[in-house]
């Protein structure tokens, strides 16, 4: 039977069919609900992100990656191949190239090294490579005991970490939505004045739709947990950076468009460069 290349088949197939197929093959592992006035109101109705269950799942998945039993880990789920965020990787390589093939990155909310292990093969030629993760204390304790190496270290305080490693870039991948006061963190980052800031996997509303606090529930197949999750207004977010940083690139990130009933948010990423 004659076989047609995938690109020809895709060209002949209505886009909606591919969207349906993608939804079946990659079911949405997270569900959002509610519109809460305060973070604390939503927090009282959730298990929280600091539940021991999450660390247990994440550490087992991370150790499988370290020991070569899995290629990649994201949100405690192992994969047999690495799913790259190509704009993030391109940004990291570009930043290294303009810094004489060196890279010092702070990865805020970087779990137990998801982005580090995701990108390390492409960064193996970078010398020196310093990847510093700022996380919750119980993640930091486990990370430094079982995962840290000459390139990867864990810290529980951003300012202390920055004083040690002097970052060229700060990475915020899927972290701002889970902070009670995301702009407090962004103010601190601006005070540190890294050359570059990379934001990825962060959902935004366009236009005048204000920030919205929801409850996110993970699929039991990932881990049975729930926590507050914030959707940011893109215009407000970008205005925050305009005085000190310029946008180098932006893209639609992993989750794509997220339907919240009357509103739709878009998962996005940005690279900012200091002016």
TrEMBL record:
Family matches, as InterPro entries: Put_MTase_LIC12133
Protein's recorded name: Methyltransferase, TIGR04325 family
Organism for this UniProt entry: Candidatus Taylorbacteria bacterium RIFCSPHIGHO2_02_FULL_46_13
């Amino acid at each position: 039977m004659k076989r047609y290349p995938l690109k020809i088949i895709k060209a002949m197939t209505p886009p909606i069919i591919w969207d349906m197929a993608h939804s079946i093959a990659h079911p949405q592992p997270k569900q959002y609900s509610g519109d809460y006035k305060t973070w604390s109101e939503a927090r009282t109705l959730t298990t929280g992100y600091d539940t021991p269950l999450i660390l247990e799942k994440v550490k087992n998945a991370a150790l499988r990656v370290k020991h070569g039993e899995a290629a990649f880990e994201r949100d405690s789920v192992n994969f047999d191949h690495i799913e790259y965020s190509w704009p993030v990787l391109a940004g990291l390589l570009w930043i290294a190239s303009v810094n004489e093939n060196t890279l010092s990155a702070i990865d805020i909310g970087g779990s137990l090294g998801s982005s580090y292990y995701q990108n390390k093969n492409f960064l193996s030629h970078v010398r020196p490579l310093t990847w510093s993760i700022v996380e919750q204390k119980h993640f930091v304790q486990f990370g430094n005991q079982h995962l840290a190496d000459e390139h990867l270290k864990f810290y529980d305080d951003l300012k202390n970490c920055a004083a040690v490693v002097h970052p060229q870039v700060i990475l915020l991948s899927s972290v701002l939505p889970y902070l009670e006061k995301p702009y407090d963190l962004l103010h601190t980052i601006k005070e540190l004045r890294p050359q570059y800031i990379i934001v990825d996997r962060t959902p935004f509303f366009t236009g005048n739709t204000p920030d919205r606090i929801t409850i996110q529930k993970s699929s039991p197949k990932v881990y049975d947990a729930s926590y507050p999750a914030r959707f940011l207004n893109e215009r407000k977010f970008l205005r925050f950076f305009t005085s000190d940083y310029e946008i180098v690139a932006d893209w639609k990130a992993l989750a794509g468009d997220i339907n919240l009933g009357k509103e739709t948010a878009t998962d996005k990423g940005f690279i900012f460069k200091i002016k």
